[in-house]
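I am hoping you can look over what I have pasted underneath with an eye to the fold:
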Amino acid sequence: MRRPRRVSFVSEHASPLATLGGADAGGQNVHVASLATELGRLGCAVTVFTRRDAAELPERIALTAGVELRHVGAGPARPIAKDEMFGHMPAFAHWLRRCWSVEPPDVVHAHFWMSGWAATRAIGGTPNIPTVQTFHALGVVKRRHQGSADTSPPERQDVEARLVSEVDHVVATCHDEVRELRELGGDPDRISVVPCGIDPELFRPQGPVASAGSATHRLLVLGRLVPRKGVDDAIRALGALSSAGGPGTDAELVVAGGPTGRGLDRDPEVRRLRRLARHCGVGNRVRFVGSVSRSEVPDLIRSADVVISVPWYEPFGIVPVEAMACGRPVVGTAVGGLRDTIVSGRTGVLVPPRDPAALAGAVRRLLANPSLRARMGDEAVARVRLHFTWAQVARSTLEVYEAVAADDRPTATRTSSAWAVSA
């Protein structure tokens, strides 16, 4: 079997260099950077193509051994919201076509739907460059949950439906996504499930702990401050804990994400959430700390008694896995990838989405039982180290590349990982 060595990642908006916590910078940026790094360690030569969003950025940057970042000139060299980027994808595709005509890769892995559009147009009628697609999120799911608030380009759902049929293979990040892909016409034999991962050296139970406040218990929400992440529900749950008495009465909720410094006070979403906290009677116990550097995230997680991750929908959800790796139980919503990662009752608790009362009940139970939290934390660490390290994810992804390059579909019997299985 031929092993692909030259891998092109196309990630039009999610640059490995981005500062996390912004509106369009989150788990996908981590996924692209970490997977590329691990593939480099496995002997691949990985080039990550992302849109240039600052004039001073060089065209080529060596990231780690075997991994290079290339900035593509497509649109103005300044930040653009990802939902306004599709009009620049023809220029992005043209740039890729010129590059690949000189240095053709062994496999192309597109991340997000616009990257898939650009990659398939760049490859055009060149059948000897296999294409793998990871959507990270599907437009049909976003529209279902956000309705008229969805700002995605109108072409998104049609493009995704075509990509499911056009690309050689789709890598889904959870089993719930497979069902959605099949409804879009995806062939189960051309879909594999490979999750996201974590760095076990960075995310581990032992290590520094961020300073705690005066509250008896700390709850933590970590991620982008957008409504679908469910921060509203966490605040309402804190209010319910306060009014009910017992464990959690004086708990604090730390919310990490969004802008930093003075920008935090001016941010409309932060201001809205602070109003909600005051309305729920917990305005003095909800603390917004803004974006946290990657190196500080484990310290913050280890300072929490319980990590809360309650999105309305979630393609995978990297924060629960990071929290589990640090030995913290997670209360998460029973949606998307969280149903794959959290084993309810063993590594955390799953609750219905948009249900603050159920969330409050689950948190109260955990805060009342330190031994239960410790047992869940221990099992969470073991589960993450067994299934969710980037080294394992990279090996599973490489198996998909090898099978696709050999025109051979990956199956459960030919993969070493329990995750990289045919859907």
Observations:
- The first strand starts at residue 6 and ends at 10.
